[in-house]
Amino acid sequence: MRFSSIDALRTLSIFIMVLVHFTENLAGVTPAIAGLGAPMFMFLSGVSFRLWLNGRAAQQLPDDSLTKIAVRRGLFVFGLGFFFNIVIWLPEDVFNWDVLTLIGVALMGLGVIRHAPAPILLLICALLLALTPVLQQVVDWGAYWYDDYFDPDLTLSDVTLGFLVVGYFPVFPWLAFPWLGFALSTLVFGSRADQFSQTTLRTIGWIGLGGLLLTGLLMLVPLVASLDTSSNTSAARLLRWSMFPASPLYLLGTVSWTIFAFSFAFEWLDRQLPPTRFLRFRQLTSTFSRRSLTAYLLHHAVHLWPLWLLATYQGLETTHYWRQATSVPVAVSLAVAFLVLCYFVFQWLDKTKRPAVEELMRWLTD
Predict the structure, then answer these.
(1) Helix, strand, coil percentages for the chain (3-state, nearest 5)
(2) In the chain, what are the domain boundaries?
(3) What is the pLDDT of residues 73-89, one digit of tens each?
(4) Helices 4-27 and 279-290 meet at what angle, rounded to 10?
């Protein structure tokens, strides 16, 4: 069963990532909304996994078959992440540990521990988040980054630490987002297709709203306003809003945002509004949500490959035009044009029954 709220939030996360990546990589400017798309994208992967399990359980699929399919799907996404790094970001960035490798690890892990009680999974998520700033300091996070970009040596220790702590999307803290999505959706939807807890959904929403208010207060208090957040003091590391490295304030804000948006959107779109309202909106978000993996891969290729190819053709360094190819208005216009084109391409794929990455994954893993 599809939920309009999940389709809407996944579409929103894709739109945010497309806009941010086009402006960053083409114009060298990071929009204020940067850092809000990826956490939601990962959180929803855990929610979708819970709903997928419930649907398969209703079909009475054997438990060991569910485990095998889940692990195969995780391996597919994990391998796709490496392929993505090599083909899009060039071979030297194969161990960047992007969103896809993280989601692949999360799915494999959930395939094995999916029967663990939700409170245990929530405790694991809390530990992943709480231990992150400590581990970042212990391993000297900044030593693995150069000019704000992850730049490890191709050694076993650097690759391992990149996977665990210092890469773009390492286990600490990012594994918490898909596993949090799985744990909370288990509390809301249960482990069968006919279970639902309205009280739990609203409690999650209030907790998320409280976290957002606390985040806003921490960003506005005089101590933060007068603090030099560019310094490397303990207070600055705790109170700065930073995605790389993921700071405690950023993690509080993004966790709060994802769980509040999940609760509010589900309550409004799936519980309050009749399914006949906003049909065009629902159809648009369903189209992008079902092709979100394809959209994620495609938008990188569309705006990065021309930069690499043009520079190579002119005999320049491959990344010569990166972050300086055009202006912000042009980059935003290109992002919007890409999304519009994607909508029509995805509609064509649906009408002609042609496969995309999602169909390939199901064909190989199910």
Answers:
(1) 75, 0, 25
(2) 4-365
(3) 999 999 999 999 999 98
(4) 60
